[in-house]
Backbone:
């Protein structure tokens, strides 16, 4: 069994080794056109809220779409429940297992 002090020493050694890694040069990864670009224009929140159209949901249309999807999924589930092997294939498998 490993001594608890040994595992603490290993953890500290890994921590110190991670601290010695060089920091990546991220300044060179930014393109000049992005670095020199203007800041985005700030717009008051009230203008954003008034400029959007309210979302209109038609309950009847939504219900019809959900029922259609449900019927399709149930039909797919019924097809997947069917047998995969024919009677002859099942018989061959049974003979092979004996």
Residues:
């Amino acid at each position: 069994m490993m001594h608890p002090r040994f595992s603490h020493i290993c953890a500290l050694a890994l921590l110190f080794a991670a601290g010695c890694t060089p920091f990546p040069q991220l300044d060179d990864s930014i393109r000049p056109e992005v670095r020199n670009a203007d800041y985005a224009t700030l717009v008051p929140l009230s203008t954003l809220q008034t400029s959007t159209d309210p979302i209109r949901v038609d309950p009847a249309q939504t219900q019809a779409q959900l029922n259609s999807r449900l019927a399709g999924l149930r039909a797919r589930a019924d097809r997947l429940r069917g047998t995969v092997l024919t009677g002859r294939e099942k018989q061959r498998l049974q003979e092979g297992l004996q």
